[in-house]
Every structure is written in structure tokens, then in C-alpha cells.
Amino acid sequence: MADVEDPVIRETYEEVRDDRNDTNWLILQYESEKSDKLILAAKGPGGLEEFTEQLSPDQAAFGYLRMNVSNDELSVRTKFVFVTWIGSRVKVLRKAKLSVHVSDVKRVLNAYAIEITAHDKNDFIESEILTQLRKAGGANYDRGSHNY
């Protein structure tokens, strides 16, 4: 079981959820290599690009992002992304624990439209994520035909 009890985690989650707050992403990582305690490792206002800059190949982490999805200038919606990051150099035992710990983390970071499991920074292509968010968000005005 992962320890996600640090109140800073919940506070930062609420910051990311709040449209009036500049913070639009957070990263949780393990306190140490042998620990199951998760701590807030980073947060920021710089969106997906800044978020991915914080990830490293030897890191196992969880992330949460607020992204704006729009079909046009009049229909902007805020959507959230839950990320499980398993860097390419993460040890096998940590990978195994991570797969079990994800449910503990989701109890805290529990409101999101899509979930991404990534092993490489190239897994974060903004246009593809936005497409997934549009599909998860109901009305999609990008489709060529409509079924009424």
C-alpha cells in the first residue's frame, strides 16, 4: 500500500483543480528508493511541457495535469489527466509496486478524464492527449459527420 497521506498532496491536488490557481500540474514520487511513501516532488504553472521536463528515466512517479480543451474559442473546457510514469531505467521491483500503488494514488487524485501510462517523454504528444480529452469529454465538433 502506498502512503499518500501527506496533506501537501491533497492541497496541491486542489490547487491544480482550481481554475483560478496558476498551478496546473503536479508530480508525486517516492520518498526514497525503498520507500512506499509518496511526496510532492514538483508542481508548476507551465503545462505539459514543463511537466515532462521534470521526468527522468530512473524515476517512478504519478502526475496530474489540468489542460484546456477547445473546439473553438467559445467552447473551452477544463479536463484533467492522471499520469503513471515508469521511466525506462526503473527497477523491476519498483515497477511491480507501482502497479499496485496506482489504486492508492487514484483515491487522492480521483477526478480525471483520461489516464496515461508513460515510459518515455515521447509518450506525451500534446495533440494526441488533447484528442483523447476531446473524445472523453462528450461533444466532439471535429468529426466530419453527425449522427442525429
UniProtKB/TrEMBL annotation:
<dbReference type="InterPro" id="IPR002108">
    <property type="entry name" value="ADF-H"/>
</dbReference>
<dbReference type="InterPro" id="IPR029006">
    <property type="entry name" value="ADF-H/Gelsolin-like_dom_sf"/>
</dbReference>
<keyword id="KW-0963">Cytoplasm</keyword>
<comment type="similarity">
    <text>Belongs to the actin-binding proteins ADF family. Coactosin subfamily.</text>
</comment>
<dbReference type="GO" id="GO:0030864">
    <property type="term" value="C:cortical actin cytoskeleton"/>
</dbReference>
<keyword id="KW-0206">Cytoskeleton</keyword>
<dbReference type="GO" id="GO:0030427">
    <property type="term" value="C:site of polarized growth"/>
</dbReference>
<dbReference type="GO" id="GO:0005884">
    <property type="term" value="C:actin filament"/>
</dbReference>
<dbReference type="GO" id="GO:0051015">
    <property type="term" value="F:actin filament binding"/>
</dbReference>
<dbReference type="Pfam" id="PF00241">
    <property type="entry name" value="Cofilin_ADF"/>
</dbReference>
<feature type="domain" description="ADF-H">
    <location>
        <begin position="1"/>
        <end position="134"/>
    </location>
</feature>
<dbReference type="GO" id="GO:0030833">
    <property type="term" value="P:regulation of actin filament polymerization"/>
</dbReference>
<protein>
    <submittedName>
        <fullName>9417_t:CDS:1</fullName>
    </submittedName>
</protein>
<keyword id="KW-0009">Actin-binding</keyword>
